[in-house]
């Protein structure tokens, strides 16, 4: 069975624990094609993208889950976004040499991780997590245990052609015992990065949980999709203000914005750019006299 770019859900029967196993293949390579990253940056971004996809699949919502790190550096920014439609996009910014390190602080310095759930209406939900521990999973798991969320564990790995992740979560409504949870997570702790990246779904679940009763559901496809749009870029340009845009037009002849997630170029020539401001000052036509 080909499990490239899939999210597979599974359930431990009679144990009140659910799991998601994720493989990002072409979707991950599309992120890497937009920007060449040094290996330590790419690893963290791949892990973050896997984590965002796994977490997005645990909630019932329409919108996007964004895992964002802002830090003092060498890695300064990391954005991983996953939607309810199982699409992903992400990017990272860094400065100087990024070490291959066993702790987040060596790669990120001081920083925080922000989890945002944006449903496109109302205030987005945000949780802020201090960036501490050796791995990204430490920071995320700390958030789940600290904020009295549902107990959740993650295992993540990323290589040049695949980013993968495993998530286990106690079902809130089921009466999973502490013993079940400890047994299953201890088994999952024996998973190596090589296995997570190299084994396909069924052999991996068998390798870890062959003594458990696991019900595996049909895999769902995951894909890269940026979701950027000319109308949103136009809104950004409007925020610059008319005089700044006029200056840009004088200097460069056009306003060009490249989407950082997908490298798509949006070009607004003088007519397009001035139109943005014309439309904001346009008044409703006067009502016709009866
Ligand atoms: Zn884009």
UniProtKB/TrEMBL annotation:
GO terms for cellular component: cytoplasm. Keywords: Chaperone, Cytoplasm, Disulfide bond, Redox-active center, Zinc. It is found in: Cytoplasm. It comes from the Bacteria. One of its GO terms (biological process) is protein refolding. It holds the Pfam family HSP33. GO terms for molecular function: protein folding chaperone; unfolded protein binding. Under oxidizing conditions two disulfide bonds are formed involving the reactive cysteines. Under reducing conditions zinc is bound to the reactive cysteines and the protein is inactive. InterPro entries: Heat_shock_Hsp33, Heat_shock_Hsp33_C, Heat_shock_Hsp33_N, Hsp33_helix_hairpin_bin_dom_sf. CDD domains: Hsp33. Gene3D superfamilies: helix hairpin bin (1.10.287.480), Hsp33 domain (3.55.30.10), HSP33 redox switch-like (3.90.1280.10). Redox regulated molecular chaperone. Protects both thermally unfolding and oxidatively damaged proteins from irreversible aggregation. Plays an important role in the bacterial defense system toward oxidative stress. Belongs to the HSP33 family. This is 33 kDa chaperonin. The lineage of its organism: Bacteria, Pseudomonadati, Pseudomonadota, Gammaproteobacteria, Chromatiales.
């Amino acid at each position: 069975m080909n499990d490239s770019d899939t999210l597979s859900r599974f359930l431990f029967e009679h144990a009140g624990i659910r799991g998601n196993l994720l493989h990002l293949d072409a979707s991950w390579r599309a992120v890497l094609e937009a920007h060449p990253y040094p290996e330590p940056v790419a690893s963290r971004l791949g892990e973050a993208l896997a984590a965002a996809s796994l977490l997005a699949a645990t909630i019932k919502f329409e919108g996007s889950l964004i895992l964002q790190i802002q830090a003092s550096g060498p890695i300064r920014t990391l954005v991983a976004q996953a939607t309810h439609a199982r699409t992903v996009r992400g990017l990272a910014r860094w400065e100087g040499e990024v070490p291959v390190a066993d702790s987040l602080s060596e790669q990120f310095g001081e920083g925080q991780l922000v989890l945002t759930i944006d449903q496109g209406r109302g205030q987005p939900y945000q949780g802020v997590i201090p960036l501490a521990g050796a791995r990204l999973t430490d920071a995320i798991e700390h958030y789940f245990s600290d904020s009295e969320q549902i107990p959740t564990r993650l295992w993540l790995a990323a290589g040049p052609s695949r980013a993968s992740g495993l998530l286990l979560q106690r079902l809130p409504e089921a009466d999973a015992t502490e013993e079940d949870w400890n047994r299953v997570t201890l088994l999952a702790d024996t998973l190596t990065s090589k296995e997570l990246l190299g084994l396909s779904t069924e052999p991996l679940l068998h390798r870890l949980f062959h003594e458990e009763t696991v019900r595996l559901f049909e895999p769902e496809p995951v894909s890269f999709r940026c979701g950027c749009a000319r109308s949103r870029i136009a809104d950004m340009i409007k925020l610059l203000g008319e005089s700044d845009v006029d200056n840009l037009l004088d200097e460069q002849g056009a306003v060009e914005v490249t989407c950082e997630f997908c490298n798509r170029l949006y070009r607004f020539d003088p007519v397009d750019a001035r139109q943005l401001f014309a439309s904001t000052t346009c008044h409703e036509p006067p009502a016709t006299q009866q």
